[in-house]
Design goal:
- InterPro entries: NAD(P)-bd_dom, NAD(P)-bd_dom_sf, Polyketide_Oxido-like.
- One of its GO terms (molecular function) is oxidoreductase activity, acting on the CH-NH group of donors, NAD or NADP as acceptor.
- This protein is about 35% helix and about 15% strand.
- It is globular and about 45 Å long.
- The protein is built from 8 helices and 8 strands.
- It is of the alpha/beta class.
């Protein structure tokens, strides 16, 4: 049986810390599964809504404890451009470790991230995006390989979204968010400022035009959007049909 917490993976990077701030600010009981607990800021670590579980991705016992307490997983796992191993072990972590644990404990919902170097069928050709993706492929091959393999792992999930996004019993309702630049700091002051930045958030294919895809999204604004999704789905009692089984590009408007 699924738990009642939000599990955050990748919670000690800048984007992960900002996500923890947003979740706790809005009163969500949260679990952070982290390799280095000391990297969680003290003001967050002391919050009673947050449980920190230390462990490596391959440590099945503590990871299972984290998954079993959760009703939804948000994963910001991903390599830095300059240190990504090739091949990355993370795609295998999803397919061979995390997804089986989710099915075992009936945790159906996961939102994970990659970059816009992954191309979706509804994307338009934009030279700037192509140039960026090509640069990553040529000069940061490990990161490019990670994104392509992660997209493949999620796309291969046995998911039926034909019944209004609910899926079948035991299936995983996934969303793979494609990001580009996510500037912004992780301090409380920077998060508070960045969460209010911009006119709004674009969610959809990579297309050009007014109020369409842009190349950046402040980390604070990303965190706010992610928790908006959490709360909308919680209120509706189901995953959002427009996001389930999709790979939306998310950016500032």
């Amino acid at each position: 049986m699924a738990g009642d917490r939000i599990l955050v993976l990748g919670g000690t990077g800048p984007a992960g810390i900002v996500l923890l701030r947003e979740l706790l600010f809005r009163g969500h009981a949260t679990v952070a599964y982290v390799r280095s607990p000391d990297k969680v800021p003290a003001d967050l670590a002391s919050n009673k809504l947050l449980e920190i579980i230390p462990g490596q991705l391959g440590d099945s016992t503590p990871l299972e404890s984290a998954v079993s307490q959760s009703r939804m997983i948000i994963s910001l796992l991903g390599p830095q451009l300059n240190d990504a191993p090739n091949p990355s072990p993370l795609p295998g972590f999803y397919s061979d470790v995390l997804f089986p644990l989710m099915k075992k404990h009936r945790v159906k919902r996961i939102i994970a991230t990659c970059t816009v170097s992954v191309v979706d069928k509804d994307d338009s050709f934009l030279f700037g995006r192509w140039l960026l993706a090509r640069g990553i492929q040529l000069f940061f091959r490990g990161s490019w390989d990670f994104d392509q393999r992660v997209a493949g792992v999620f796309a291969q999930l046995d998911l039926n979204i034909g019944d209004g996004g609910k899926g079948k019993e035991g299936e995983i309702e996934w969303t793979l968010v494609r990001l580009c630049g996510i500037p912004g700091g992780a301090s409380e002051e920077e998060w508070k400022a960045d969460r209010e930045a911009g006119k709004g958030v674009y969610v959809g294919p990579v297309v050009s035009g007014k109020d369409k895809w842009f190349m950046t999204l402040k980390r604070g604004r990303l965190a706010r959007w992610l928790v908006d999704v959490v709360e909308e789905e919680e209120k509706a009692g189901r995953a959002m049909e427009s996001l389930v089984g999709k790979m939306p590009a998310v950016s500032e408007i």
